[in-house]
Amino acid sequence: MSTRVLKSAFLVPLLSLAFLPMGCKKPPPITLSCNASAPAIYPGDPLTVTATAGSVNPKKNTNVLYSWSGTGVTGTGTTATVATGSLDPGSYTAKAEVKEGKKGKEGLKPGESAQCDANYTVKAFEPPTISCSSSPTEVQPGGTTAVTAQAVSPQNRPLTYSYSATAGAITGSGTSATFSSAGAPTGAVGITCSVSDDKSHTATANTTVTVLAPPPPPPPPHTQALCSIGFGNDTKRPTRVDNEAKACLDQVALNLKQQPDAKVVIVADSNAKEKATEAKEQKRATHNKHVKVEDFAAQRAVNAKDYLVTDQGIDASRITPMTGMGDDQSEQNYLVPAGATFANDVQGTMPVGETSVTPQERKPLPERHR
């Protein structure tokens, strides 16, 4: 091989190396990813959105800028806040953009900017729920019962309670009220417990209170016959209250003391002989005003009353002396409880005129002379 050929063989590879291209390596384009702190929230809940950049140019003179857009979104860095209090329920997007490059020239070259979205949902507030109960569930006319409401707001919104009834009246606030059946008819009364939150969401629940039929009125009290007194033992003083009569009247007084709102009516009678004597005296009195007419029955009643007032201390206004139509020398005592009407229970009596018939002094009989 000649020297010329050898030189040519070595020359070709050298020339190839001399003409290889020497271009610089480009940095990868910047990337950006976004994320919301919660995928779903209620209006007013806190929410942040974050942007994370990737492939940022490591050169020292590279500047990185962030910007945000979207309803209620504010921020200039990698994190922005969202004012959720005024947002209506629905789906929302917070948009972020990042730019890098020399200060004042960020994002001018290809690959120096990127965008991303952070999606989230604003949920509607759930309405409250409520239960309603009453205790007791049955009341007498005019009675009352306690009404209790228990309400829950899923999002703990402030709650306001109110109550209504189909009859009667109900008053109260908060979780308790009082139902009054005054004026309500007999039967079931519907009660409604209502609750509302500060977002105008409402809920109701119902309970029932039964107004019972009024109990029948108690039977009216009636006059009661007490002990009776016979005046036939003392022929000379047939109107005098003797020891036997006192024993009966003491029992009458005890009844009056035990029932301070009761009264007593004393009904005394006279026999046929006494009535005849009285008739004769009345006839004589028409011609002689000095003739004394003795009403035996009236005198017995007045004397018995005097004993109750004087010896037993009974108020005179609680004792009424009367005469009856019987044919004997007796006296019947009647207890008249409060609310009873004597005239309805005992007929055939006449009141004694106490201005003309006055009590007789209880004197012992004079001793006989031997």
Ordered list of secondary-structure elements with their pairings:
Elements: H1 3-18, E1 31-36, E2 40-41, E3 48-54, E4 63-69, E5 73-74, E6 79-82, E7 90-101, E8 113-122, E9 129-135, E10 138-139, E11 144-152, E12 159-165, E13 169-173, E14 176-180, E15 187-197, E16 202-211, E17 224-230, H2 243-258, E18 263-270, H3 272-285, H4 296-310, E19 319-327, E20 330-336, H5 342-345, E21 350-351
Parallel strand pairs: 2-8, 10-16, 18-19
Antiparallel strand pairs: 1-3, 3-6, 4-7, 5-6, 7-8, 9-11, 11-14, 12-15, 13-14, 15-16, 17-20, 18-20, 19-21
List keywords for this structure.
Immunoglobulin-like; alpha+beta; 3 domains; 21 strands; disordered N terminus; rod-shaped; 370 residues; four-stranded antiparallel sheet; five-stranded mixed sheet; 60s Ribosomal Protein L30, Chain: A; single chain
